[in-house]
Amino acid sequence: MMLCFMVKIRNINIHTSFTSNITVSTESFTNETNSTLISSDKRLETKLQCIGPLYNQSCLFKNLYYVHSTFTTLTKKGNYLPEYFIQTNAFNLWPIVLNKREFDSYFHLELFVRNITNPRRTPYVTLYFGRALFDGLYSAYAALIRFSPRHLHPFRNLAGISECDGCWSEDVYSCFRIIKQLVLNKLSKGRWFIFDEFIIGSGAFCQRFTENDRKEVNEINN
């Protein structure tokens, strides 16, 4: 049959048509990681919960997608995500921009995920770890504890860090179940990924020790 649906990307409407005899099953399916995506209860649409003011928000995404080095949300027309402003560290002055795709119905969204993208699933909680060890670690954990009790259970880190095999901080990173974003970017070329739960934000919570701070401490100690 000929199936047509509208996809909205960054406020640009793209009319997508393709011929298919695919029927959507309510059964679960398994991808390369032997993890199962269950769609019969509409779990494939992106959901979002944010805590805190816009300048220092922590956000929990459910079903956040990643392709071509870009985070992507999939929603049904009429289901809107709340306003969000995602800053991952104190040195990043601009928020992370997410790609958006909107579908006419959940049926079209499910068909797109199950039969077109066939994403590789990352189960449970993934925490975004921005930039370096000190400002990145504190900001990430501050975001995580806002969504208690997830900080009490195992979680993965997606680390937006530079490649540095000789850095001493690599030993610290290895203590976490880490996924380097540089590696994920290479894997996501033409390949979709889905995070069950993805926590990100709170970059402005980072405290930086400046030269003026050092002078004030010395004056107090003297």
Description:
There is one protein chain. This protein has five helices and twelve strands. With about 220 residues, it is α/β, with parallel strands linked by helices. It has one domain. The strands form two sheets. Strands 1, 2, 5, 6, 7, 8, 9, 10, 11 and 12 form a ten-stranded mixed β-sheet that branches. The protein is globular and about 50 Å long.
Mean pLDDT: 74
Number of domains: 1
- As a whole number of angstroms, the C-alpha radius of gyration is 20 Å
Separation of termini? 82 Å
Tell me how many strands there are: 12
- Based on Cα principal axes, name the global outline: globular
- Percent strand: 25-35%
Helix content: 10-25%
Please mark out the parts with pLDDT under 50 across 5 or more consecutive residues, or reply none. 1-41
State the helix count. Answer: 5
Main pleated sheet: 10 strands, mixed
